[in-house]
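Everyone, describe these structure tokens:
***
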Amino acid sequence: MNVVNDLLGDFFEQVLQTAKQLMQKVGHRTLFVHDIAAAVALHLRGELHMFAMTQGLQALNLTADSYGLDTHHKKEKKSKKSVQSSKLDIL
């Protein structure tokens, strides 16, 4: 069990390091969801990548729902909540 835990911990660290590098390359001071999504895409391929992205998006939507944030953008209205939820959208 410790081997699996170490493996997942190392993978998580690699993804975060890549996301941090992508964020710094773009010049952002905030780590956005699309930075993490791009890092996951660089580390995982094919069906595993798609599964990880689907699960991550579901987790973000559940978290946004629990905080009452709207993750769907409406062009007619830009409320404060929709601007805050833009950090949760994966583009």
